Amino acid sequence: MAAPATLTSEPAEAAHKPWYRQLYCWVLTAIVTGVLTGWLWPGVGTALEPVGTTFVAAIKMLITPIVFLTVVAGIGSVDSLGRVGRVGLKSLLYFQAGTLVALLVGLVAVNVFQPGAGVHAHPGDLHLEGDASQYVKDGQNQDWWHFLTDLVPTSAVGAFAEGDILQVIFFSVLFGVALKAVGPVGEPLVDGIQRLSSVIFKILHYVMLAAPVGAFGAMAYTIGKYGISTLTSLGRLVGLFYGTSAFFVIVVLGAVTAALRLNIFRLLRYLREEFFLVLGTSSSESALPRLMVKLEGLGIRRDIVGLTVPTGYSFNLDGSSIYLSLAAVYIAQATDTPLSIGQQLSLLAVMILASKGSGGITGAGFIALAATLSTVGTVPAAGIMLIFGIDKFMSECRALTNLAGNAVATLVVARWEKALDTAHVVTVLRTGEPDPLPEPSPQPAVNPLTGLPAQQPSNV
């Protein structure tokens, strides 16, 4: 069986380019240009909306096949199905712990700094309009167990067509397990999937050439439509959210990486192209394929990356969790709604469930927030109108924090699986050049009577 082409060749080649030819440099230039365009010529910025949305749509077009191929190839390469279940369980346990910590960090920050104090907004004067009204309606119809019932697609094709990552993961795991269970019969298909992955990632490379254009259009539209004045009018809340998220990444996630004997700043630098891409498009999904490639470039096993990263996009939303606790208590403070510690902990318990399974959905943060407020009932749901105007600016930070959280989660799970070569990761982070370790070949079955490799059935 021919070895599949490495999926990390593009980032490795990019590492040798001079800085002015690096993707992150062009994306950063496009972001700055987009901000200036939207600020100075709002009409032009607003008209550029199709440029950004088309690029994001092109990325989303590739996400479901990449998730499917990566998960199936990862499961097909492991030596036992028990290891797949172990990786999945450890990922979910870490995700739950990370979500809880992120919610608590946001809760402490909003209580200490109280950005909503002094607003004195009357709930009766708040009227839901436009998209905000639809988000609240969706949130009211969203039960706490929705992510469980939404896990199973009504059809395999529908999951891919609708771009539901969670459903694609569910189908991919079933497909990969079945492929592994049939043994030698499925080996040619595993080889074909690995080869097809190389083709899909080459398509991704072509799409990424348009990343600066997409970032320019998305940022020009955001500033042109909402204006910088919208950002500054609620500056305390925006500043607190960005500051809290930075604290979470540098201190909390930094402590986790330090326990792994890794440097959080070097990890962030290694992923700088993905961060700039997320910043420009306001979508963490735009960086999902490249994040998986970069993590494999750290020497992390493909099955760990393939299971942890896509699942984390639905279950490990650290930035969204911080946003939920900050926004809910801010609305309570702004509407003079008293909340006891017990009531805030009740909000937190609902948020743990409401935040799951919403990755990649437009307005997901608002839907989860509305679902929380509607379920608890102590804070007026109409209060989301107070922050609706700045949500677009806050979504940037949510996406960046989510990306950092999922990168660290993958490292943790790899260490938990005793599959993290720390020295190799340190070398890659220091040089900035992805260098995947070779995947171990599955051990041949042994005949218990002779002690020799079992005879494989002929394909003829």
From TrEMBL:
The chain crosses the membrane at residues 23-41, 61-81, 93-113, 165-182, 203-228, 240-262, 366-390. It is a multi-pass membrane protein. PROSITE patterns: NA_DICARBOXYL_SYMP_2. Residues 431-460 are annotated as: Disordered. Residues 435-445 have a biased composition (Pro residues). Keywords: Membrane, Symport, Transmembrane, Transmembrane helix, Transport. This is C4-dicarboxylate transporter DctA. The lineage of its organism: Bacteria, Bacillati, Actinomycetota, Actinomycetes, Kitasatosporales. The gene is dctA.
